Amino acid sequence: MNARLTAAAALMTLSGAAVAGPVNLDSIPRDAQLVVHVDVEAIAGSDLFGGLLAGLADADFDVDGLSELREMGINPVEDILSITVVGFDIEDEEAVVMMETTDALDRVVDQLGQMVRFREGPNGWNVGAMDGEGAFAYTSGRRGTRRVILGEDASLVRGALRGGGFDGPEPRRGALVYGTVGNLSAIVGDELPPFIGEIRSAFFTLGEEDDGLGARLSIETGDRKAANALSQTANGFLGLARMSMPPEIEQFGDLIDGLNISSDGAFLTASLFLSADDLQDALAANFGEFDLEEWVAEEEAEWEDEADARAEEIEDAIEELEDTIEELEDEIEELEDEGAPRSAIRAIERVIRQLEKQIEELKKIKELPEDQWSAALSALTVDVPSRK
């Protein structure tokens, strides 16, 4: 996959901030087996996580795919607004990714348009084929945003364009993360303990509640008896963990105490609330105070070290090519002294010209910004051409 399409694929794993909002279940295909939605607008505006995203927005270090996105004019923290992963067959990893972005996506589309032919699809979508069997689709969203669907199976992408009204539980108000999965028994197979029996579905939300973090997990079992057995087992494990917790991590006991597990009919529910202070105190007691600026500085320093290493690799490659050229020039002199056929000498001269071109390409790469080196080097093959 080339650098531009790699950047498009990298959109699958990144998130940012703006006006995405909660998951729209009407836009999810009815036959989805798994849905995971990240409401990045809420994350960026939250007291717990907003500062972290803001601090990462201008960080000068690279993560897989970020450099390609920046080259295309996308700020991976600010321009990607929401991400929804939709899975159809989890065992076979059949899935598409649905996103909402700012209008900065237009710059990606302009550059992809040089390599991908977009065609008009259903409901106003524009659809283009990616490498292999994949597809990339986009359209205008609400309030000037852009909507994107991409995946490695073009037929799944085309099906997702039509929506379908997914019949899943509604997200809780203020949820930052929403997830639901059906037919869990078929997915995990024989790994479930016999007393649990069938697990039909699971539903998870995570969000800010009353100046803290609230999480809720609901599991639908086969019947009331299975739900009750699962609840008793889970609470037993929690009690054992609380009693056997070593002193060095005893602060996490408050986290366990805040976890409530109960059953109601065929449903098992686990809920957890952590105040912002309790969460910060527990993490600080065990991992030390987290300094975002210090962490970013360390990552930038590591990136600079990696850039220095890549620069040294480029210099070594240039030096190796130059040494090869000198050896070939010596070989030409020997052939001329021996009266070898001119055709043999011309073949070596062609090799030398090719090596000189590769040296020039490597020198040009060194003049590029450091975050573009990886993509440029991956597109360059440094080898010795045939003399034939």
Describe the structure.
The protein is elongated and about 95 Å long. The chain has 388 residues and is of the alpha+beta class. The protein has a 12-stranded antiparallel beta sheet. Helix 11 packs antiparallel against helix 12. Helix content is 42%, strand content 22%.
Task: Chart the SSEs and their pairings.
Elements: H1 3-10, E1 34-39, H2 40-45, H3 50-56, H4 66-71, E2 80-89, E3 94-101, H5 105-112, E4 118-120, E5 126-129, E6 135-140, E7 146-151, H6 154-160, E8 175-182, H7 184-188, E9 199-208, E10 212-221, H8 224-243, H9 253-257, E11 259-264, E12 267-275, H10 276-287, H11 292-338, H12 342-367, H13 373-378
Antiparallel strand pairs: 1-2, 1-8, 2-3, 3-7, 4-5, 5-6, 6-7, 8-9, 9-10, 10-12, 11-12
Helix pairs in contact: 11-12
Radius of gyration: 28 Å
The biggest beta sheet is recorded as:
12 strands, antiparallel
- From the helix content, strand content and strand pairing, which structural class follows? alpha+beta
- Using the alpha-carbon principal axes, give the shape: elongated
Quantity of strands, as a count: 12
The largest beta-sheet arranges its strands as: 4-5-6-7-3-2-1-8-9-10-12-11
Q: Compute the separation of the termini in Å.
A: 30 Å
Low-pLDDT runs of 5+ residues are 1-20, 384-388
Question: Given the structure, what is the number of helices?
Answer: 13
Q: Give the proportion of residues in helices.
A: 40-55%
Give the DSSP E fraction (strand runs of 2 or more residues): 15-25%
Overall pLDDT, averaged? 75
N to C succession of SSEs: HEHHHEEHEEEEHEHEEHHEEHHHH
